[in-house]
Amino acid sequence: MRLATPALRISKGGRTSSLPLEPGTHVVGGGPGCDLVIVGASSEPAFSLLLTKKSDNVSASISALRDDIIVADRLLKPEETVPLRAGQTIRFDGTECRVDGLTQPLRRGRRKMVAAGLLILAALLLLAGFRNDETSGNAVVAVKTAATAESRPTAEAIAEELRQAIRLAQLPENMTVAPLATEIRVGENSSLLSFDDRAKLHDIIDALNRRSPVPIVDRSSLSSGLAGFVAAAGYEPFRFIVGADGHRYQEGDTVASGWRIDKISPGELTVSRNGEADTIDFNFPAGDLNLRLAKSADAEGN
C-alpha cells in the first residue's frame, strides 16, 4: 500500500493549509531562521519537528523552542522533546499544527495508516491579522523557505502555490499567474490593487521567490483609491485641488490615506506613496474658486 505524503497541516482564524514534509528536521515559527515561517507570528522559532521515514513507518518527534508550546493538552518546557503521535495537535501563538501521514501505533498485529487527502496547498496559509506596519489589512503566510535540490519545486508547482495563496489572501479573483520559461508573471492585465492588497501580494512573492526555480515578477497595477476624490481644482495663481473631504490641497501635501500629491495638472492628479505612484483623472472644468473658502491641509490631511 502506498503511504500518504507526510504533511504539516496548519490552521488559524478558520483557515487551513497543508505543507508537504520531507524526512529531516523542520524548524517552525515566525523568525527568518525558520524552515517554515509564519508571517505575523512572534518573530522567533516555536518548535522543531523531526520527521523519520523508514520503509512503511513514518514517525515524528517535537522539541519545544519556547515556553508556550502545547502538544495534546500538555504544555512543554523549552528544549523538551516528546514523540508525536498520529492525530495529536500542536498549539502555539493562536495557531494549531498537526502532522498528517504518521503511522498509527501497532494494534492487533496490523498497522493502520492515518488517512491524508491530496496536498496541493504547499506553502501558504491563512488570513488573519498580518504585520502591522502602516496598515493592518494583511494576511498571515506560512512558507517553506528551504528545499533540497531533489525536492526543489517546478515553476508550475510554484505557480499553483501562488494561485492558492492569492485566493487565501482574498486578492482579486482575476489576478493572473503565468509560469513562463524564465519567470512567473503575476497580475498582468488584472484588476488594480489597493495599497494594502499590493503589500499582501509582495509578501507572498517575497516568500515564494526563495523556493522558486525562476523569478516571480509582479506585473500588477496599483490604485490609490482616490478616484472621485477631487471635488474641484484651480490652477491660478497656484495649482490646488479641493478634496471630497472639504480640504484644499496643493502639490506636496499629503491626504489622510497617506498619499502625497506630486503634481496637479488640468484634469489629472499624480500621487505617490512609499515609491508607488498613481494617476487619477478628473473630468470637470476648472472653476474660478474662492480660495478663502477652503483651508490648506496639514501633513496629516487635517
Give a quick set of tags describing it.
302 residues, single chain, mainly beta, 21 strands, 2 helices
Description:
With 302 residues, this protein is mainly beta. The chain folds into three domains: 137 residues, Tumour Suppressor Smad4; 68 residues, 2-Layer Sandwich (Alpha-Beta Plaits), CATH 3.30.70; 64 residues, no CATH class. 10% of the residues lie in helices and 32% in strands. The chain has a six-stranded antiparallel β-sheet, with no helix packed on it. Helix 2 links the parallel strand 14 and strand 15. Helix 1 runs antiparallel to helix 2. The radius of gyration is 25 Å and the shape is elongated. About 14% of the residues have low confidence.
Strand arrangement in the largest pleated sheet: 2-1-11-10-7-8
Helical/strand content category: mainly beta
Beta-strand residue fraction: 25-35%
Regions with pLDDT < 50 over 5+ consecutive residues? 108-140, 288-296
Number of strands: 21
Count the domains.
3
Secondary-structure element pattern, one letter each: EEEEEEEEEEEEHEEHEEEEEEE
Query: So, CATH architecture of the largest domain?
Result: Sandwich
Helix content: under 10%
- Overall mean confidence score, pLDDT: 77
Cα gyration radius (Å): 25 Å
The CA-CA distance between the termini, in Å, is 69 Å
Q: Would you give the CATH topology of the largest domain?
A: Tumour Suppressor Smad4
Instruction: Tell me, briefly, the overall form.
Output: elongated
Topology, pairings included?
Layout: E1 7-12, E2 15-20, E3 24-29, E4 36-38, E5 45-54, E6 57-64, E7 70-71, E8 74-75, E9 81-84, E10 90-92, E11 95-100, E12 142-144, H1 155-168, E13 177-179, E14 184-186, H2 195-209, E15 216-218, E16 230-234, E17 240-243, E18 248-250, E19 260-265, E20 268-273, E21 276-281
Parallel strand pairs: 3-4, 14-15
Antiparallel strand pairs: 1-2, 1-11, 3-5, 4-12, 5-6, 6-9, 7-8, 7-10, 10-11, 13-14, 16-17, 17-18, 19-20, 20-21
Helix pairs in contact: 1-2
